[in-house]
Amino acid sequence: MPDQPVRRDTSSDPSAPPERDPGAWAIAPGCVLLSCAGELDAATAPALAARLRERAEPAVIVDLTAVSFMDSTGLSILLNARLRYTRAERSLVVLCPDGPARRVLRLSGLEETLSVADSLGAAQETLARMGFDAG
Fold this sequence. Notes:
Residues 1-22 are annotated as: Disordered. The protein is an alpha/beta fold. It is 33% helix and 25% strand. The radius of gyration is 14 Å and the shape is globular. The two termini are 15 Å apart.
């Protein structure tokens, strides 16, 4: 499946103020992509944790493409989110092509546990294997 363009998540009311999470993009019904940029460490990871707790979609893709640094705090946030989502029968996939964040995931041995994908198309295919139906 080729990568599809990503649309910005919009409110059902077009006159509503901008959404609370400007880094969230709807990519299919019931699926959102949360983009992260810069450093994912002790100072910034709690914001990602909050974003992941606030989302109600059955499927979430966390995009680490623009992450320039990630430490164990970032890994912990992703692992805890994966556990919560699994318990709630929701799906979580990490989109992370080669780069600094992918090296951390590879060295930690968590690529498979976190369902890491190289591209948006691969992330969507992973969600389909997990049983997510984009309708």
